[in-house]
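Example record

The entry below shows one chain as it appears in the dataset: sequence first, then structure tokens.
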Amino acid sequence: MRWTTLLAVLMIALGCWSLPATAASSDGDVPTSAQSGRITDTDTWRAIRQGEAGFISGQPEQRGQLIQSEGEAWRAARNGKLAWYGGLALVGVVLAIGAFYLIRGKIMIEGGPSGRQILRFNKMERIGHWLTAGSFLVLAVTGLNLMFGRWLLEPIIGKTLFSWLAWAGKWLHNLSGFVFIAGLVVIFVLWAKDNLWDRYDLGWILHGGGLLKKGDHPPAAKFNFGQKTQFWMVIVIGTLVSSTGVSLLFPFTFADMAGMQVMHLIHAALAVLMVMAILGHIYIGTIGMEGASTAVTTGYVDRKWASLHHSVWVEETEAKEPKAAE
């Protein structure tokens, strides 16, 4: 009986001794995981959601970041304003070109072709043109598909076929980028000197390039002001698009995740601007002007066409030709 009484007294004493701690806990001072030194699943996922990076052996530190909240802002900008305004701008350019064609019509060789040919671009110049132009067409088609295809093409051909098309397009896009860079280098070396400002450019501007009314043909050297503007646009914007594209092909080499997201937006926006400008170039070089397309296919153009649109160049070229013996 005495042992039972002693055990009861000890239990009551221990209970009274632990009472303050229990009372403190009941007042809301419950030890947290941080205070107790323990890390719970809640703490772990909160840190991940806030962008804290973990550790991955043999990998850059940034790759340990599972969730990057800024990615939502990038996605909203890319799929929102950029896609919306870029799409509207492209449609607007196409409609403007169509309206110009209906109003102005095809620019014909007045009096008809002469039948005499003159060499405009040699073989190396044509190779440089098609390296740049051909790769750009592939880049434009595959890039536009990556930006707009999910909304425009996928509902028509289905998810499976579109996924394969997007996958193949991505690889074509990446490989064509290096061909485009090579083309930029070639045309810069070949044509930069001929695309500098000269005394004929102001007159070309004042006459609207002779595009606004028939019979108006301001003198121009090998390239007129419109072609020069197109050339430097391709060189400058093409270089920016290429550099941002290369940085995206090699993640974390030139920038962190946030930097790559910014470069992607710049890459896409400038690419849309290039497509808009090249649409006008393609129009003039094909259905918009008689006799222009052969310059980059066979290399030769009709002399009458050349004398109308590049009269100074024709005079300079023929002055260099050896005179026939009388």
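Notes for this example: DSSP finds twelve helices and two strands in the chain. Residues 70-104 form the longest helix (35 residues).
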